[in-house]
Specification:
Order of helices and strands: HEHEEEHEEHEHEHH
Radius of gyration: 16 Å
Structural class: alpha/beta
Helix content: 25-40%
Strand content: 15-25%
Shape: globular
Low-confidence stretches: none
Distance between the termini: 43 Å
Number of strands: 8
Number of helices: 7
Largest sheet: 5 strands, mixed
Length: about 200
């Protein structure tokens, strides 16, 4: 239950749909679509109450990313509990005059490639944020799309090649660099590299 490798393993299984809800409202919206889906589905759940981002009237479609905030300077793609941190990071960046796209990638596979491309082509600076190893999950999936179709600087926020451990969530988020301030730092990093990629 402290896995930081599960999405990477599931991503390698052919035909597997991988879904990580942000909150209870999004999870409820997903269940009918999961039941109607023809094929295996992996649902990644958090063991504690998540920060509420969506309400019961929010539109939802499996496989379709959700744009939560529109910006022009940097793209932040986030999943699961990191969505709330991404929203907070965008607010902190806005105080600096930096406008961030915040996109919820709730379905890791199949990835909404078009959503990645649309945002990356606009901002030319990308951050991914996930409660998982940065290897072979959201960060890697977005990197693959960028490498194949839209080269842009990318900074990945997530667990940096460590096993998970037991502890209170705030402590672990601080230890592994999974907070809004870490996303802000990553945004600065990607934006600083923009000039070298033109």
């Amino acid at each position: 239950h402290m896995s930081m490798e599960d999405m990477a393993i599931m991503r390698n299984i052919p035909g597997m749909l991988i879904y990580e809800p942000v909150d209870s409202a999004q999870l409820r919206k997903a269940f009918p679509q999961i039941l109607d889906h023809d094929g295996p589905v992996y649902v990644r759940l958090l063991r504690r109450a998540a920060v509420q981002i969506f309400d019961e009237n929010s539109p939802f479609q499996l496989g379709k990313a959700a744009l939560l905030r529109e910006g022009s300077d940097v793209s932040i793609f986030a999943t699961g509990i990191m969505v709330a941190e991404a929203v907070e990071a965008a607010e902190l960046l806005a105080q600096e005059g930096i406008q961030a796209d915040v996109i919820n990638i709730h379905t890791l596979k199949p990835l909404d490639r078009q959503a990645v491309l649309d945002s990356a082509k606009k901002t030319r600076a990308v951050v991914t944020a996930e409660n998982h190893s940065v290897l072979n999950a959201l960060g890697s999936a977005v990197a693959e799309v960028l490498a194949e179709e839209c080269p842009a600087p990318l900074t990945r926020v997530g667990v940096q090649d460590h096993f998970g451990e037991v502890g209170f969530t705030p402590f672990l988020q601080e230890k592994y660099g999974l907070l809004a301030k870490d996303i802000v730092r990553a945004a600065h990093n990607s934006m600083e590299k923009k000039g070298m990629w033109k």
